[in-house]
Each structure stands twice: as structure tokens, then as C-alpha cells.
Amino acid sequence: MSEPPVTVMVVxxxxxxxxxxxxxxxxxxxxxxxxxxxxASALRIAQAxxxxxxxxxxxxxxxxxxxxxxxxxxxxxxxxxxVLSASGEHADVLEAVKAGASGYLVKSASAEELxxxxxxxxxxxxxxxxxxxxxxxxxxRRMAITPDSExxxxxxxxxxxxxxxxxxxxxxxxxxxxxxxxxxxxxxNHVQSTLRKLQLHNRVELARYAIEHGLDQDGEQEEES
Length: 225
Known about the structure:
Layout: E1 7-11, H1 15-27, E2 31-36, H2 39-49, E3 53-56, H3 65-75, E4 80-85, H4 90-98, E5 103-106, H5 111-122, E6 127-128, H6 132-143, H7 158-168, H8 173-180, H9 184-198, H10 203-212, H11 215-224
């Protein structure tokens, strides 16, 4: 039995671009549930159709796509936001990720890159245009210089910690499953359990947590040994 298609919503204030992306995704097997042209309608429509992935432009006129991203990720937990923007400015990327975006793709990306990014975002991966992932992780490293030590860290199992280290290194769920010789579903269960324990929303935040606690460095040392 084949898996149901990934459901998508496209948010962009340029009708030709918005309709073109929606058409391209539909032709490649995605279920494009809706489109929207501004932040207010994006939240309202997303609440009604609950897509797996919202493709979000940042320039939406009066209200930034960052605000729409924040509202959608806070109010519709099952929906992930992938920013698709003409801007590759560092400030825009970091602002979008801090608002809860699972990834960031520039509009110069090819159709194949977009299709792959949407599929990976739906699967729970953090997806970035080449060069931007390092920027985000670098910012989280800078923020980690003064970690919050007032709160006791939640207790993770040995396997959850192992999966967390590999997530921090940028590995996909399938890559982690292959490395640990466990099923893809088991990896996802560990990731979701860890997200709940740490009260985080997506894998970008999970990677940040791992970096703040030095787990990514531990993972690298283990692989070298």
C-alpha cells in the first residue's frame, strides 16, 4: 500500500510565482491543499487544511512571513514551515528559524531541489540551501556560550542521546536508521520522544540543544575513534 501524498500549502504574494510552484508540486505528486497571498489568510487557511508543509515567502506586504511562520508553528503543531524566499540574507534566515521554520530555501533553487526539500521537511528533516545550515548552527554555537544552567536537563535514554547526536550532525532519519541498524520508524519515535521531553518543536531546535550541550562534538569524537 503506497503512502499518502505529502500535503502542501503555498504562501506567496506574487500570483504567477505562487501558482507556478503549486502547479509544479502537483505535477510531481504532492497534494497542494491551498494557496495564500498574505500572512492573515495563510494562518486561517492553514488551520482549515492542516497541510504537512507550508512553503512560506518572507515578503508578504504589510506582515512578514516570519510572523506567519511563528503563528503557524505555534498554533498548528503538526504543520512544518519551509521558507522559500528570494532573500539569502543571514538576518532573514536566522529570524525565520527562530520563528520555528524547519528549513530555508532560496528561490534560485531548482525544481528538483524544491521537491526534495519539501519531502525532507515533511519527514522531519531540517533543510537549508547550501551554506545556510552552517550559518544557523554557527549562530546557535554563539548563543550557547551562555547556556541556561538554571533548569535541570531532562533525562534522555542512552538511545535517545545517541539519536540526538546524529541529528545534530545533520543526518536524516534514514541515515540514522542505517547507522544504528534500527528501523526508520524507531528513529522517528526516538526523535518525537526527545522533542517532547525537551519541549522543543522541530529538529532545528533539537540540533541547537545538542550543540549547546556539546553532544555534536561527542558524536564526532566517537566516529573518529
